[in-house]
Amino acid sequence: MNRFSTKVARLAADTVSGAMALARRAGIRHKASAELTRQSRLANTACESEIRRQQGRQRFLIAGSRAAAGIALLAGLLDLHTATAVARAVEAPRSKTIALAFAPASQTLFKASGDAVYRSGDGGHHWSPIGLPPASAPRRITSIAVADGEHGAIYVAGPGIGVLRSVDGGRNWSARNDGLPGTDIAALSTHADRPETVYAYVSGKGIFRSEDGGQHWKLMDAGPRGGITRFVHSNMPGSMQSGWLFVAGPQGVRRAMDCFCGWRDAGELRRAVRAVAYDPRQPNHVYAATDTGLFLSVDGGEKWSLVHTPVATIEALVVTPAGALYAAGADGSLFHRSAAANRWERIDA
Prior knowledge:
This protein is of the alpha+beta class. The protein is 26% helix and 33% strand.
């Protein structure tokens, strides 16, 4: 081979080598470009994912903030409600029970407190209010009584009320004041055996009796000296008529036959008496609540003995036909003592 051919061959080889080098460099650049493109896409995807994550986190934080604000507001309202309830409990203590009554036919216990009446069908553990007719002037309940019989009427009385009567458990009421000199009723009692006979004491006027469920009233007696706080009719034997009236008043317990043949001191319980009740099973058993405790007489008021009670001052008493004694404390508490057990149970706790 001559020199020219050799140069041509070398030039061709160099050209091929250069072309191959260029091709290799171009392939590398292509791969690099492809890799760059891929990395860019990955970066964009990661960026978009981060943006979406940050946006989600922001939405979560906003929702969390709103939820926290709602919870805080609710907690504040609950705290306010609790504080209000506590304040009300402090400002409005348990209402004092003024009077108690029991309906044997329905086994229902009634209590009067201020200007409201309540019923309980489970011995005083749970209570429901009884609606009274609207009043145009302030009123105060002093007495509640239930007539004898299967469908015993309920009577509610007091100043500004007069006498109210219901024969359907307190759903409807009718005023029974015709023949009374006013509505200032200090005490009321039903007859122990006669469902339609009712007694009402009008302050400063005397004791009135109705024998037709309060439709008509007749003045029977001026009442004992010192006035009447509470009274109860008892069918204790020995009366010249149908029973006895036991009166609680500032000077103790006084009694009279229901013929109103004169008042006598019932023993020597010479102190103010807040409430009086008798045991229907044993009518000669009479209870009297005083500022110094609860007393019991087993001989119709001749002699009295102190009875242990869980509270010092009792405002209201009632004895059921089964012999269960209910006593309402001056602090609004309510206690029960069964005939079988000489033990008191607080039932309003």
